[in-house]
Amino acid sequence: MTDVNYTIKQMPLQERPREKLIKFGPQALTNSELMAIILRVGSNKDTAITLSQKILNYKERGLKNIASPDAELLLGFHGISHAKASQLMAAVELGKRVSRIDFDDRFKVTSPQDIANYLMEDMRYLKKEHFKIVILDTKNKINDICTISIGSLNSSIVHPREVFHEAVKKSAASMILVHNHPSGETQPSREDINITKRLIEAGELMGIKVLDHIIMGDGIYLSFKEENII
Fold first, then answer.
1. Is residue 72 predicted with pLDDT exceeding 70?
2. Mean pLDDT score of the chain, rounded to an integer?
């Protein structure tokens, strides 16, 4: 007996994603059902729900497959066009921006946890190391966040000249260094520690204090200040 591939329109009305969302709210839907609403239609092989399940099940990574969207990865699935890939990527980005609403309007930093809360969803799923500086004013409010380098940290790509060029341009009173570990772990390497000490020394000369260095993992973080590394 051959398998029958039902369409969403053939599902009972109360089980269709859009109808469930309106009646019970988005929290009642599975991840694949929420994705199906964004995709709207599937392909000649899959419903929007089963197509969403295939994306989520890829390499057993679940939402990680769309948390840091990769257009090339999405386009590799039969039924995902450029339009659908764009819809998913836009929805994910909106979700990230909504999660930061409470932190906007010149957010004041009072602890490493504040920085982790602000940047975690942007950085936890990145596949390469991103080194950023959080530029603060005299009241510890965020003036700007600048990406200095992308790639494994080393002294050749994270140079004081590049870091403090941005800090001076944005009138920094102080700054916090932040980078992610794609492995999801937060243990600092010897190079992480050496770079941090080098930038602290440069900051003392420039009159721009480096307050902390925070390593972002997958839902966890490490503060050099809290761990007495600096």
1. yes
2. 87
Q: Residue 160 belongs to what H/E stretch?
A: helix 160-169
The better pLDDT of the pair 7, 185 is held by: 185
Question: How is the chain split into domains, by residue range?
Answer: 8-99, 101-223
Integer Cα distance of 78 and 148 in angstroms? 37
The pLDDT of residue 205 is 93
CA gap 164, 189 in Å, rounded? 23
**Mean pLDDT over residues 198-212, rounded?**
95
* Residue that the structure tokens 């994306």 belong to: 55
Amino acid symbol at 75: L
DSSP three-state, residue 82: helix
In total, the chain counts a number of residues equal to: 230
Fold of 101-223: Cytidine Deaminase; domain 2 (3.40.140)
